[in-house]
């Protein structure tokens, strides 16, 4: 009787583990699908951002009416909603200063 009860518990444990594996496989497939959808969404947003960036720079002119070179400037949006066109060399130096100020995490 003890051996029979032991086999029954073992069989129940195996069945529970098989059910857990099946549930985890279903969850994995669901997460893969969700990841794929998010990746597609990110790609679309990046494309829209690139299109917007090109559109903005195609309309910008300097003081003399010449087109602004997008290779030399970046668009910066502040937390208050203001938008600035900043020379890239200034942005890079600011990022370096910010990186030096922040303690490195290990």
Automatic annotation (TrEMBL):
InterPro entries xrefs: bZIP, bZIP_sf, NFE2-like
Gene Ontology CC: one annotated term: nucleus
One Gene Ontology term of the molecular function aspect: RNA polymerase II cis-regulatory region sequence-specific DNA binding
Stretches assigned to the BZIP domain: 2-49
Name of the protein in its database record: NF2L3 factor
Organism (species): Stercorarius parasiticus
High-level lineage: Eukaryota, Metazoa, Chordata, Craniata, Vertebrata
């Amino acid at each position: 009787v003890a051996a029979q009860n032991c086999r029954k518990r073992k069989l129940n444990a195996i069945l529970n583990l098989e059910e857990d594996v099946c549930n985890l496989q279903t969850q994995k497939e669901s997460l893969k699908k969700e990841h794929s959808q998010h990746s597609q969404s990110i790609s679309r947003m990046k494309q829209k951002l690139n299109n917007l960036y090109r559109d903005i720079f195609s309309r910008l002119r300097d003081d003399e009416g010449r087109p602004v070179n997008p290779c030399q400037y970046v668009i910066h949006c502040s937390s208050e909603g203001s938008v600035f066109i900043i020379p890239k060399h200034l942005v890079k130096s600011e990022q370096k200063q910010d990186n030096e100020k922040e303690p490195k995490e290990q």
